[in-house]
Amino acid sequence: MPGETITLQVGQCGNQVALQYWNQLAAEHGIQADGLPLAYPDDPSSRFQSGNTDHVASQGQSREDRPELFFTLSDSNKYTPKAVLVDLEPSVIHKATNALPMFNPRNVHLSEHGSGAANNWQQGYSYGLQYQEELLNLIDREVDKCENVSNFQLFHSVAGGTGAGVGSLLLELLSDRFGSKKLINTFLIFPSNEKTSDVVVQPYNTVLTLKRLIDYADSTFVFHNDALNSIENLLFNTGGSRNSIDGQAAFEGANKIIAYVAATISNPLRFPNYMHTSHESIYSTLVPTPDLKFLTTSVAPFTSQVSRQSYTNEYEIILELLNDRYKLNRVTEPIKYISVLNYLIGNNLNQEEIRKGTTKVQQRLNFVPWTPSSVQCVNGRKSLFGNNSATKGLTGIQISNNTSIVGVFTKILKQYDLLAKREAYINSYTESNDAQERARVMGLFNECRESVALVVEEYKACQSVNYLEDDILDEDEVM
Ligand code: GTP
C-alpha cells in the first residue's frame, strides 16, 4: 500500500490553491465540507473488473478508493485533511476554514501580528526561523497520525514573502528532519509578468526560493499565472469571477485548474491501479536526475461545455494535451522533452484510442536524444461520486519534464540582474545599512542566482546527445 501524503499550504496563494485542491479531493471521495462522508456507492462494474470480492464496496463496509492516504478518519467518522495551514495574516485561512470546516483548527499556524510578510522573502524566512519549533510540532503531529508517510507536498507562490520565505524554511526543516527518507514535492506558482506587478522585489524572492527548491525538493510542478490567464476557455466555469477585484475570486478559475491537476497526479494511488501505485514510481518516471526536476503540466479538455465533452474521446484528449497553448507553464519557444506521462481519467477507457494517441504523440514530440522517447499513459479511474461537476466526463492531464524551464528561469534571472546591478531595494533584506552588511547579503543572493543559472545550463546541456557521457566524464575527473 502506498504511503500517506502530508500537505503544507503556505501564504495567500498556497492556501487559496490548496482550498480548491481539498474541494477537488473531497468531491472525488464523497466527503462533505464538514468532513462527514456521503454513503459510498456500490459499483457492480468495479466488482466484476477487479475480481476481488474482498474489496467490494458497500455502505458502511470497505471502500475501493483510498481517502486515508490524504485524510485522517476520526473516531466520530469524520475526514480531516492531512494538512498544515500557515499564513502571516488571517483572512485567507479564515475563509478556507469557513468554506471547509473539515480542516483541523489545531493544524493552523497564524502569526500574532497578523500583517503578512510584506512581500519580503527575508521577513517570511526570519519568521519561520523564529517559529520553527511550533511549525515542526504541527508537522510531527500529522506524521504521528500516519502509518507510513511517503510524501510531503507544499503549495506556495514563489514571489511573495510568506509562501516563498516560510516555504523555503519549511523545505530546509523537512529535508533536515526526514532527509532522503520521504519525498518532497512542491506546487509552485509564478506571478504574471504581463500584468504590471506592484511588487518590484519579486525577482529577489523568486531566486531565493528557487535555491531552496533546487537544494531540497525532489520535484517541483511549475505553474505560471501568465499561462493560466491566457488559456481562453477554462475547464471550469467560474461565472466570470476571474475579473473580480477580490483576490480569491480573481484567481478562482486558475486555482481550480492547478487543483485539478494536483489532485489527478495521485489518482492511481487514491483509486488503486495496476501501474504507478506509489509516488516514487511516478516521480522516477519523470525525474531522470536530481538536476532536472522542474515539471510542466497540461490539462484537457479546456471547456466546461457538455456538448464539447460528448465528442471528446481518448485520442483527441491525448493530442490536445500536446498543445503548448494548454500548458500551465509559460512556453515561449520550441521545447524538447525529457519525459512525458499522460493520465486519462474515465470509465471503460478505449485502449485502441489510447494506443493510437500515444503512438501519434511519440512521433510528434521532440525528445532529447538520450531518453527512450516513449510516452506512458496512466489509465486513471473515475470517482464513483461521478455526478458532480468536479468529477464527471473524460479528462486528461499530461506531466512532462521539458526545456520550457530555460525560458522561465532566464526571464527571472534577467529581472534579478536588473535589480542586483544597482543593489536596488536591498535595504529591506539587510540587518543594517552599512556597506559590509550589504555586501554580505548581495553575496548570499548571488549564490542563489548561480544555482538557478546552473539549472538553466543543465536544461540546455541535456539537449546534447553526449549529456549522460559528459556526466560520466565529470565523475571520472573527480575520481
Ligand atoms: P505575503 O503577502 O508577503 O505575506 O506573502 P504571500 O506568500 O501570502 O504572497 P502571495 O501568496 O500573495 O504571493 C504573491 C504572488 O502570488 C502574487 O503576486 C500573485 O501573483 C500570486 N497569487 C496570490 N494569490 C494567488 C492565488 O490564489 N492563485 C494564483 N494562481 N496566484 C496567486
UniProtKB/TrEMBL annotation:
It comes from the Eukaryota. It is found in: Cytoplasm, Cytoskeleton, Microtubule organizing center. InterPro entries: Gamma_tubulin, Tub_FtsZ_C, Tubulin, Tubulin/FtsZ_2-layer-sand-dom, Tubulin/FtsZ_GTPase_sf, Tubulin_C, Tubulin_CS, Tubulin_FtsZ_GTPase. GO terms for molecular function: GTP binding; structural constituent of cytoskeleton. Keywords: Cytoplasm, Cytoskeleton, GTP-binding, Microtubule, Nucleotide-binding. One of its GO terms (biological process) is cytoplasmic microtubule organization. One of its GO terms (cellular component) is outer plaque of spindle pole body. Residues 36-65 are annotated as: Disordered. Residues 46-61 have a biased composition (Polar residues). Pfam families: Tubulin, Tubulin_C. Gene3D superfamilies: Helix hairpin bin, Tubulin/FtsZ, GTPase domain. Belongs to the tubulin family. Tubulin is the major constituent of microtubules, protein filaments consisting of alpha- and beta-tubulin heterodimers. Gamma-tubulin is a key component of the gamma-tubulin ring complex (gTuRC) which mediates microtubule nucleation. The gTuRC regulates the minus-end nucleation of alpha-beta tubulin heterodimers that grow into microtubule protafilaments, a critical step in centrosome duplication and spindle formation. This is Tubulin gamma chain. It comes from Suhomyces tanzawaensis NRRL Y-17324.
